[in-house]
């Protein structure tokens, strides 16, 4: 059952006696409560005297005293009481969310990250949970034995065997349940576009209980989320905190955590201090775009709304001053307005203001607003430029500067996020500002929120801060750190057990408790190596961080040094290189005896112990030595599945190549060839885009990109180098035509049967012109046909179509499925049909109906989709994670390919070797997309320092290019 608003205080006299009783109880937060009690005492005495004088002993103005005078005075009394836990809260022995019948749980021998001491404390010990609360946290064995005995028979005892235990993850920015998955028009309730200012709207009123994402988020360790309205409006409405577990009542209300008492009536006066409320604001592009206005308009709307609220607040204060003085004559009703009461509460310091704000201009505007109307800002969300203007944040109204709730590497999708930096969390922390990592689910799927902290940590945020950033800090910023975000006695029993240290790549919960109730029915565990049980040792990014600030967020990304001479990489642990059908190991150092790799004209000419390679460089006059510190050399990764190379900023049309005209659903201009036109991506390439260069710096040295389509027909893809400065530079275009691409799906404006029918016609009667020529190539098996498709039903139809065409022509088609979220359902058939699959996104999510049947991977299923397809001998390549499979809004994540495949190996639990994993994002992608063998064999190699390319502890140092006969140092 969900918490119920407390009963309304009835008689002020009662208030006095209750206060007297409770004044004796004590624990945390005593000072705040004492304050409150004194206030209650004083105002209650005043009320009592007033009631005595005016009601019990009426004087001459008795006739003007309203009937509900004492209620009105109660209301006046409560106006400026600040939110703080109820005075009984710290003495609670049972959670308001306790589900009777829940078995107490004792977890012993855990490595407990408590959240205490700014996230620095971890202890080896035991945790007892009962009645929805953490009842005991301790290290001593005798207490453990005593408790086991006390609960004998009625206790679930789990030996954690040293595994990490943390509080549940707290997501401060989620649209879970208001933008539920799979996405269907009937339930998209996150944004109202009726007006830019609507502080009266409430996310609770649109909270869908059937979102597929609840159980996925829980599987990632998320236990509590703040559900925000979207950012279409300057004031989008009120946000609500929910716990994600299912409830017996199955209602939105029963999921709420500490909802405000005045949920069902703004007039409700509680006998307790109020609970925190939450308000969503948004500045910048979104409200401007939706309402066709400028930033100037938006801020005038903010000021106008706050001015209105301030007038109401002032009239209430004047009213109450008179009422307290007994001057009822002509006073009328208490001034109130249901539309504006939430804003009035902001001015009274009772609301956590959560503001979507990206750029310096918006941050500065909003900080001025906070000072003009004197309200504190809980956090700036997205906050892409807060790291550039820390002093602006420090100028905000109130005693604590706003926190920054941000993404790790999701950026450059719009102009406002163009200057985002992966070093932003660390820079903010260095400036003494609070950092939160958030999902903006489903932008980043909240199941993977911990990965945001992992990346922030990789780029320099200290581990204790990175942990706090998704657990304790959001709890504090939401005003709920009296019950969630820490492992402490008396706190909510929201606890996660992990299979590794949470900051290690691929960290996965083995069990998640919400209110003491285990949430994973029969979780699948992966055994992790010992090295994953401690936070990774992250690379040194001091120089890059400094440069980022120096260049106002846009540091140059081009390689620093070009070497045409002999380069000797020393202290090398492994060398992998391209082989005919995958990746071959060329060198593995003996333990503790790293070797060298000698590179001449961009080719590795010798690997081994230094002595054995001396002949290759001893006599050379010009040799550069590069220490890899135990690192490795491996094939450069190849990306596919985004609009990389065809755009700079996804949401700025003037920076992107644009979508082709789709011959199936639109009229193609005659001048380009009408229906028979086939567009080539090579004709639209842009070089030196920031996403390309960042990809290059992260070891993704090339990419295959098809023309962007919003319909059925795309065109011919191109294979290009991500590090080239322009199209005519050496090695920029690796292969001008890779494959022919089409998309099939339910979102295209032609029936799926029409789409399949079109494909059948093209394959059986290719016709004339360019279109005929290229489909002929497909039928002849000379050019792969790459089909973007997710639905298992369409995939099955395509497999049958392939057989039908092959039977008729007697030739074999090279068919590759990309996207392929539901392909796992047909793994056997796909394997038998020798059809390849590029899994994109690499970790599945049920964004749409045709992608709803995902194979989620551990802990929800024993295998991941990738491992499952591989076990059926399907040739698998990986795409990127991106955002909702949008080819445009995914180019930022190309750089994360190495983390994505590292994660895929971990998730496969030892069934994928490092060679195979490297192949998933290089050789296989090339094979599936028609890259010629001799071209593939000339692919770039990547030198990484401090580990191999897939290690979370390594850093890419250089690119070795046989094709360009050179080495670049980054
Ligand atoms: C804790 O672990 C130790 C060894 O690691 C083991 O001897 C002991 O039995 C465990 N205790 C409990 C309560 O699980
Ligand atoms: C293709 O030919 C094989 C062998 O003749 C036959 O078994 C199969 O049913 C045919 N498939 C289609 C789709 O026509
Ligand atoms: C996959 O290939 C291997 C080796 O060729 C073979 O032994 C195995 O049976 C195949 N598996 C499936 C599911 O076809």
How does this model look, in words?
InterPro entries: Amidohydro-rel (IPR006680), DHOase/Allantoinase_Hydrolase (IPR050138), Metal-dep_hydrolase_composite (IPR011059), Metal_Hydrolase (IPR032466). The chain crosses the membrane at residues 34-53. This is Carbohydrate esterase family 9 protein. Residues 262-273 have a biased composition (Polar residues). The structure is a single chain. The protein is of the alpha/beta class and 970 residues long. It has 4 domains: 5-59, no CATH class; 170-533, Metal-dependent hydrolases (TIM Barrel), CATH 3.20.20; 558-636 and 940-970, Urease, subunit C, domain 1; 637-939, TIM Barrel (Alpha-Beta Barrel). It has 27 helices and 35 strands. Helix 2 runs antiparallel to helix 3 (69-78), helix 8 packs across helix 9 and helix 8 (295-324) packs parallel to helix 10 (360-373). The longest helix has 30 residues, at 295-324. The two termini are 57 Å apart. Bound molecules: 2-acetamido-2-deoxy-beta-D-glucopyranose (NAG) (3 copies). One 2-acetamido-2-deoxy-beta-D-glucopyranose binds next to loops.
Structural category: alpha/beta
CA-based gyration radius: 31 Å
Query: Would you identify the CATH architecture of the largest domain?
Result: Alpha-Beta Barrel
Strand content: 15-25%
- Between the first and last Cα atoms, what is the distance in angstroms? 57 Å
Superfamily at the CATH H level of the largest domain?
Metal-dependent hydrolases
Low-confidence regions: 1-33, 51-62
Topology-level CATH name of the largest domain: TIM Barrel
Q: How much helix is in the residues?
A: 25-40%
Number of helices: 27
Give the rounded overall mean pLDDT.
Answer: 92
Total number of distinct structural domains: 4
Q: Which descriptor suits the 3D outline?
A: globular
Small molecules (ligands, ions, cofactors) in the structure: 2-acetamido-2-deoxy-beta-D-glucopyranose
Taking the sheet with the most strands, its summary is: 9 strands, mixed
CATH level-1 class of the largest domain:
Alpha Beta
